[in-house]
Amino acid sequence: MGGSEAPLLSETIRAAIYARTSSPSQRFGHSISEQVRQCVQRCQMQGWEVQHVFRDEAKSGKDTDRPMFQQMLNRAKQGVFDVLLFWKLDRFSRSIHHAVRLEKQFREWGVALHSVTEQLDTTTPAGQFNFRNIANAAEFEREMISQRTKMGHAARATEGKWPNGIPPLGYEISSGGRLSIDAEEAELVREIFQKYIKLRSMPGVVDYLLSKENSNSLIRNWTPNTVSILLRNNLYTGRYSVGEVEKQVPEYRIVSDSIFKKATRIRTRFTKGSSKQGTMNRERKQRHIKRLTNQYKEWLNSTE
């Protein structure tokens, strides 16, 4: 394999193909279809019969927790193919620990590994040595990418920039990567804090938001959990905290310290030794009961 004759002795070599992408937008040359095409072409050159194709889309290669990869392992263990092809070793695994362990397991199952783009032949001592060298290079590349990514995030955090393309409600990302306040969203954030302080109930805030007459695109999919996340976000007081970087950025402030602290005291009032439990206000309780009653009636009607 990999340019040399395959040392498999059966008349018909049963081949399986494994292809993987790490993101939905993988370009041509790395796409699953192109990986499979090149593997099929190699099988035709070698005279091998393709019997199985396993595809994992948008799955990381750092471990083996991939659905089709697991299915492929089960089929290999059952002995339904003799050789597994992949476009490149890092499509198979990008962890040397997993790659070396799996290569030994495949050997015990009588299955050879073949890379289309690398000189890889695990049926010979030289091929096994080469396999470990290639696996080492793949592991080194993955660690370098991870290190560069962390360094990039740290550099952005030091400059007060937001680490990803999804800013919290109340902000937008400027061309330089820093946050800027979105006036309409910031007003909604302040309104949520004020309403929570008044109602002292996250479900109550949700009911208020969902019942607003002049609903807009900002009033949607609210839950007590999303309200809780918003009320906990210190960024609204201008406290920027990303990774190990923590500093005060005045232009990021949306609510005052006093408002934030007041909301925090209310939010944590049952977690400081108090045995009291929050109670559902009467109006919300009535709506809740009515909703459950209507659901039950609908279910009864559907069973008639």
Automatic annotation (TrEMBL):
<dbReference type="InterPro" id="IPR006119">
    <property type="entry name" value="Resolv_N"/>
</dbReference>
<protein>
    <submittedName>
        <fullName>Resolvase</fullName>
    </submittedName>
</protein>
<dbReference type="Pfam" id="PF00239">
    <property type="entry name" value="Resolvase"/>
</dbReference>
<dbReference type="InterPro" id="IPR011109">
    <property type="entry name" value="DNA_bind_recombinase_dom"/>
</dbReference>
<dbReference type="GO" id="GO:0003677">
    <property type="term" value="F:DNA binding"/>
</dbReference>
<dbReference type="Pfam" id="PF07508">
    <property type="entry name" value="Recombinase"/>
</dbReference>
<dbReference type="InterPro" id="IPR050639">
    <property type="entry name" value="SSR_resolvase"/>
</dbReference>
<dbReference type="InterPro" id="IPR036162">
    <property type="entry name" value="Resolvase-like_N_sf"/>
</dbReference>
<feature type="domain" description="Resolvase/invertase-type recombinase catalytic">
    <location>
        <begin position="14"/>
        <end position="160"/>
    </location>
</feature>
<feature type="domain" description="Recombinase">
    <location>
        <begin position="168"/>
        <end position="273"/>
    </location>
</feature>
<dbReference type="GO" id="GO:0000150">
    <property type="term" value="F:DNA strand exchange activity"/>
</dbReference>
<dbReference type="InterPro" id="IPR038109">
    <property type="entry name" value="DNA_bind_recomb_sf"/>
</dbReference>
